[in-house]
Design a protein that fits this description.
Strand content: 15-25%
Number of strands: 9
Mean pLDDT: 89
Number of helices: 11
Oligomer: single chain
Shape: globular
Length: about 240
Amino acid sequence: IDVIRTVLAKHGFHFSKSLGQNFLTDVSVPQRIAAMSGAAEAGSVVEVGPGMGCLTAELCRVAGRVVAVELDRALLPVLDETLAEFDNFEVVQGDVLALDLAALCKEKFGDGRVVACANLPYYITSPIVMKLLEEKLPIESITVMVQHEAAQRLCAEPGTREAGAVTYAVHYYAKPQLLFTVKPGSFFPPPKVTSAVIRLELHRERPVAPRDEAAMFRTVRAAFGQRRKTAVNSV
């Protein structure tokens, strides 16, 4: 933590509550994430929100190339320092929700195998996960750290009490798996909740073939729109 404080102070960095910034300090966590992400097998990684680069460094050690998308410009000089030893890393400054990720992957990785990996801010977990799933990207899997409650919802079995609209969307695009949990003390500053790492293995063939995909998702969202009503009345 002292090293983190020193590096951040050197570059005049201040944490942003609005961006949900919590940086990993337990090195064993990013090592486990990198090892379980499929980065070594795929060779190329697109990372969302590298922060100080703790997870990024481990991805660089196992993958041939890592391209990270970072929203906060203030972290760019920090990453230049913390990842200076790696020549297989590149950072793209921008909002991942606004970027054309398909074009980015094509430009940076060509037709090579790619996985996605991230330590996601809690406040924007679902939008980022759904963007990665919906945009027909050339990625094989998505390994992300999220709030434990969100992980349970994303990985819930359809038909259970924990399942929601996002659960069915995830299962449509991928096979989800909760890998392990991470305590608040593994971060600086520590969040108030437990985190969890999940992996979404994208389907090569979708489990169902709707005539109108957009209509299917509208129906699913409507069914879960008011939980006190029956699904039929909600729809």
